[in-house]
Amino acid sequence: MKRHTKTVLSSLLALGLSAGSAFAADVTMNLGFGAPEESIYGRFGKIFEAKAEEYTGGSVDVKLRCCNQISTEDEAFKAMQLGTVDGFFITANNVSPHWPMMDVTVLPYVFQNTDHLETVVDGEVGAFMKEQLQNDTSVHLLSFGPALYRDFYNSKRAINTMADMEGLKIRTPKNEVMLATFEAFGANPVPLAWSETPTALQTGTVDGGDNGTSFIKDMKFYEFEKHLVILEHFVAMAPLFASDNFMKRLSDEQREQIQRAATDAGAELRQQVINETEEVRNWLATEGGMAMTRPDKTDFIIAAKKVQDDFAAERGDDFVTLVKKIQAAAE
Fold first, then answer.
1. If one looks up domain 149-235+279-328 in CATH, what number appears?
2. Segments in the chain below pLDDT 50
3. CA-CA distance, 142 to 127, in Å (whole number)?
């Protein structure tokens, strides 16, 4: 009898362990970003949060942490490599110091139009970049997210030709491609971390800068930057990253669900942003009080092409190959 009872208990224990392993454990994802809750990052985060919790049946609890609560945008990538941050939205140009290949997306005028960009990030090139970034850094790129053209702004004067850029002190992210681009445009780029930028603009330490259109409104830069310039020289993407440490806490099924949530959230927000860009520009030029100009881009594109060529030659074969993949995607 005792032997039978022991056998039954052992069987029940084994069954319990087996059943337990079939169910995914509840996991919390602290997802950070440096901008306000109402920003494009906050919107992306809310869509992703809803889809992640829906797709995982609530087994993954996404908690949004805005405004540099858990890290800054300049430090978050390294923190994810160390496993101290679960996930973060980082503008693509701020990833380049950690993974230089990301600079292909930062090259001025590298994307011919929105269709070209979507073909790249949603297709084979985007998949290759995600895989390569993870191999090189351990960080997972879950979604390239929405694409915003960076609009230029300054407090000094209207820009109608490239010659009007001469001498302007322009806040630039600490990114070599962007610094070289503004130099090629005739300005004086000043590299500043994002966390220092609003104060530098407001105090006049720099004359201007560039951001995704909605960011100019979200950050209320129109209150002290009176000239809006539609150059569309850079595409600003808002990729969603996750640490390997976080991804390893998920079951195989949860990883698939989180990846799907990120992909679907990025696609949904991208379509919203496409529809809103001109609306935001018009708001900035009316209610925001900015004077908007749309310069002829010919000279800017010529200068940008030289930046593309110089960086491709400097960065080596792998970089050149990736640039060619992006160019081929437009054909």
1. 3.40.190.170
2. 1-23
3. 10
